[in-house]
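Hi R.,

Here's the chain you asked about this morning:
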Amino acid sequence: MTSTGTAQPPYKQLRRPTTDRMIAGVASGVGRYFNLDPTLIRVIFAVTGLLTGGIAVLAYPIMWFLIPAEPAGAPAWPHPTAPGATTATPTWPGPQPPAPPVS
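And here is the predicted structure, written out as tokens:
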């Protein structure tokens, strides 16, 4: 029996990436999940920590403990939306593929 419905894109998972991390990957994982720059998330962590007298800084180790790390063989986010589709270019700043040579 075959399915006639449209292919569902994989759901987003909040994970700590192994490639784009400064300390534990919490800010990078949150940034990827919400499609924001991880640097912005780091600044929000810092400002919130300053405004709350350091209380909000306790959220980082708690999130470090609760958010699972990406498995070693997991594809980089964003995942392809359909079987056989190519991986989309990420919208957050990061390593960009080299430009094609100009002839």
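One quick note: The chain is about 30% helix and 0% strand.

Cheers,
M.
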